Amino acid sequence: MLAEQVTKDNTDNLEPKQLLKTLVAVKKGNFSVRIPTDQTGIARKITDTLNDIIELNERMAAELDRIGTIVGKEGKITQRLCRIHSDMRLSH
């Protein structure tokens, strides 16, 4: 039974080159990249999760940029960060 599950999971076709390309882009600060979610099974769960993480990082970077502008240029140190996680609904 376990061998059947491993074989099934291996046929989900998560492309390592696409995954690496996406991870490298995110590492360099490009949060606009996403992995296509046309897979099934465990590969689909991996791509959905990675895309959610990238989206959270994109929103966090934008919010930090906004705060940096307010504090750095306008001198307002009382500005607060928005709640990033509460706005995003993860249903996976």
Task: Set down the secondary structure blueprint.
Blueprint: H1 2-10, H2 16-27, H3 41-74
Account of the 3D structure:
It is a single chain. The radius of gyration is 18 Å and the shape is elongated. The chain has one domain (12-87). Residues 1-7 have low confidence and may be disordered. The chain is mainly alpha-helical. The protein has helices at residues 2-10, 16-27, 41-74. The longest helix has 34 residues, at 41-74. The two termini are 26 Å apart.
How many helices? The count is 3
Order of helices and strands: HHH
Number of strands: 0
Low-pLDDT residue spans: 1-7
* Tally of structural domains: 1
The helicity comes to 55-70%
Main beta-sheet annotation: none
Shape: elongated
Salient structural properties:
mainly alpha; single chain
Condensed summary:
With 92 residues, the chain is mainly α. Helix content is 60%, strand content 0%. The protein has helices at residues 2-10, 16-27, 41-74.
